[in-house]
């Protein structure tokens, strides 16, 4: 059962000087789907390496974008982004951590998706780790040029950009950007429409410190995911933080259409990551929450980690359906729950087999296979009219036939997962990262979607050097994944 509650709220911000649109709304292009940066109908993949060295500056951070093609991801067709890239605001500096968070939406409604990149370690106006967020614009030729997103709450927060999300959160037909940070007002919205120049509009922000389950200001808002959970045609926001005075997870669904958005929260199962998609095809997006921790570290965790599914409904949850919890001990799920597996470290929803139901990929980067420790694995489970099913579930590792590469200790395969249609065939490809591959270089795998699930035939494997990122230091390529 959900709770409605009141929380301390920041004053709604007065909009700045309104932007003058250069064309009537009726002439605007249809909004592009997220991550389709060049408008070709195929999703592209953004890969964050926030620990990458740029221009000799350690942990300045970088992002590689690999474009989709009829055959799936095409690593030879990529765009390298850093704060030293032409057209990208700022300068790469030690510890900026550019690429720590990623999101996408067609922010200026020109028919090309744009990329939102967080750099929570950026120093701003003498304020250490104040953080910044950069919008990079999509175009027919792909990503090009960018601008810094306004921080309406600069005095009240730090690590701006440690989490980002983009979408229509208010139901006004225009996109917003949601930002997570540490400090008093951990969650903020910047209102659209967005343009490449000119003033930003206003926004609002709120604090969760006085909620029934208060969030910690020091940890702040650490992760955001989004989808139409209530079935009203616009997106809700799943907000992850830590409980006040602990480091235990706390998770809630936010309705941004309510002016005082913290007045209405639906508490979700506690976890550190989430994905939103319609698993059962009923028109309400469902929420999958991953909690990789052991119960000794977080009471809401489980031995080896777990994922919990909360089915969506008009009030944010379908109160007539029980929570579904899945571990590696769940009947039909391959493997066994073992301490340290970290099952649920990453989750993604997408339709792999084009049957109209969202399927689920779950990373377990702490899984040990053979004699090697923390090599990692990914488990795929399928959606159906009855909800998530374990029928046909399959686990993939670097030992799976057809998966390129060799597993090594601390690869952490499954550190991040993504299900997006990179080929345009309406079947999502499974992309998997191993940030620890090759002693911290990191790597990405992509497996094509088929009517029977991901296939290892024609699998793609590439590392940072293939997309322009130096292996100096430990870039941990794939620490974040857009999509």
Write a structural description.
With 483 residues, this protein is mainly β. It has one helix spanning 437-440; strands at residues 45-49, 62-69, 72-81, 101-105, 114-119, 132-136, 146-148, 157-167, 176-183, 187-191, 203-206, 223-227, 236-242, 249-254, 265-267, 273-277, 286-291, 306-310, 324-326, 346-350, 359-364, 377-382, 389-396, 416-420, 429-434, 443-448, 455-462, 480-482. The protein has a four-stranded antiparallel sheet with strand order 3-2-1-28, with no helix packed on it. It is globular and about 55 Å long. The two termini are 30 Å apart.
What structural category arises from helix and sheet content? mainly beta
Strands across the major sheet, in which order?
A: 3-2-1-28
Average predicted confidence as pLDDT: 92
Instruction: Report how far the terminal alpha carbons are from each other.
Output: 30 Å
Counting DSSP E segments of at least 2 residues, the number of strands comes to 28
Question: Which stretches are poorly predicted, pLDDT < 50 over at least 5 residues?
Answer: 1-27
Could you describe the largest sheet, including whether it forms a barrel?
4 strands, antiparallel
What would you call the shape?
Answer: globular
Q: Approximately how much beta-strand content do the residues carry?
A: 25-35%
Cα-atom radius of gyration:
21 Å
Work out the helix count: 1
Helix content range:
under 10%
Q: Order of helices and strands, N to C?
A: EEEEEEEEEEEEEEEEEEEEEEEEEHEEE
| Oligomeric category | single chain
